[in-house]
Structures are given as structure tokens and as C-alpha cells.
Amino acid sequence: MKFTCTGFGDIERALADLKQTTGKSVLRRVGRKALEPVKNKAWQLAPVDTGGLADSITISGTQKGGIHEGKIPGIPNNPKSQVRLFVGPDTRFSHRGELQEWGTFSNPPQPFMRPAWESEKMGVLSTITKELKGEIERTAARAAKRGKGK
Prior knowledge:
Layout: E1 2-4, H1 9-16, H2 20-45, H3 52-55, E2 57-60, E3 68-71, E4 84-89, H4 94-102, H5 113-145
């Protein structure tokens, strides 16, 4: 499942004033904070036999088997304003997570990632909206104080 946030024109312009690596760091910090409730909910909903599946659920900047992906905020062809974050079981449990989520011929599905996303998605967007502008402003102020702009 993918999602893209759009309509953040003022944020895009503010990101343009930061160095690319700095802008991406801002987006990652906010994105991780926003996705934490999804991770926690998935952990609560994950089927438990040994506990390994739930314990493997992580937020990562690289896809390690995560079932859900988000680009935050995301204007195509502008890598400075795009960050991809994944939430889901890490590589040790990604296959098992998919089997649990979607089921198999002999085992019914036991969804945990999709319900976690559905219950928390509005909070994710709310956190991004509330946190992103302030984080950009604080980062820009620190950079200006150090004399480092673009």
C-alpha cells in the first residue's frame, strides 16, 4: 500500500531553501515520528506464536520487506522533497508477514499491517501537517546561525 502527500507548496518552497541532505533529514525525522503509531498498532495486532513477527516490525528508509510505503510529501521529479519510509516486518520475517497478512491455501489471512494503517492513517497525516513546517523552520534557523544556507 502506498500513499503520497501533495499540496504542500509552502513546505516545498521551504525545503528548497535547505541543502538536499538536510531537507531529506527533516522529512525522515517527521516521517518516522508520524509512522510510529502505525508501527505500534501493527505490533499490537501481529499474530503471536513466538513473538518474532511483532518484534521485527520496524520503520526504515530502505524496504526490508515492509508492507506499507509512504513518500513524504512528494512531488514527482523533485528528489529533494521526497523521502521513502517503510513500516513492516524486517527481512527476517517479511515473507512470514506477507503470509500472515494475506493468508495461504491452508491458513486464513490474519491481517495486521492493513488494519494498523487504516486505524492510524489520519494521525499520520495530522502529525506530518503539524510537525513538518516547524521542523523545517527550526532546521533553517540552525543552518542560518551556523552560516550554512543552500
